[in-house]
Amino acid sequence: MNRVTAPNEGKPFAGWDWSRPIPAPLAFHRTPVTEAWTDYNDHMTESAFLLVFGDSSDCFFRYIGIDEAYRAAGQSIYTMETRIHNRREAHIGDPLALTLQLIDHDAKRLHIFHAMMNEADGNVLATAEQILVHVDMQAGRSSPFPPDLAERIAAIAAAHAALPVPPTVGVPLGLRKK
């Protein structure tokens, strides 16, 4: 049985360069829609949207220093919650470009926001809001980010502080009564 692998899996942490500006938002992941991601309606299936958002998160993890060596040392980031807001369809071959904004963080958690665009026409196809937690995998519980990682996260938060909070962030899910 095959397991899911991220496109950048095996690519080690490139190191942090404090002299380089931090993009706001971050934009590391691009991919075309593959046939395997489509469904009986001839467009990208909802599980594929989650997969692509997860791949974008993985690019972010590598950017801050979480790679195979980090996980082999017993620490990782786990997803606590994800909320996807679908806006438009995506079809085979559509070029996807994703951005990631750090909305908030504390000693153990991250609140991030992804936007997925069709790179050809600039339309936003979907957004995802996630709460992530840093985990000591051996203890099986959350743990604070180590100081070097916390420092990088704080630098990203400072670079993203001027970005507007997207309108769907924190909006309750439910049916509106008229």
Please report the total strand number as a whole number.
Answer: 6
Order of helices and strands: EHHEEEEEH
**Beta-strand level of the residues, as a percent range?**
25-35%
- Give the CA-CA distance, first to last residue: 49 Å
- By DSSP (H or I, 4+ residues per run), the number of helices equals 3
User: What structural class is derived from the secondary structure elements?
Assistant: alpha+beta
- Percent in helix: 10-25%
Radius of gyration: 17 Å
* Spans of at least 5 consecutive residues with low confidence: none
Oligomer: single chain
Shape: globular
Compute the average pLDDT: 95
Biggest sheet overview = 6 strands, antiparallel
Q: How would you characterize the overall build of this protein?
A:
The chain has 178 residues and is α+β, with helices and mostly antiparallel strands. It contains three helices and six strands; from the N terminus they run E-H-H-E-E-E-E-E-H. Strand 3 and strand 4 form a beta hairpin. The longest helix has 19 residues, at 46-64. The radius of gyration is 17 Å and the shape is globular. The mean pLDDT is 95.
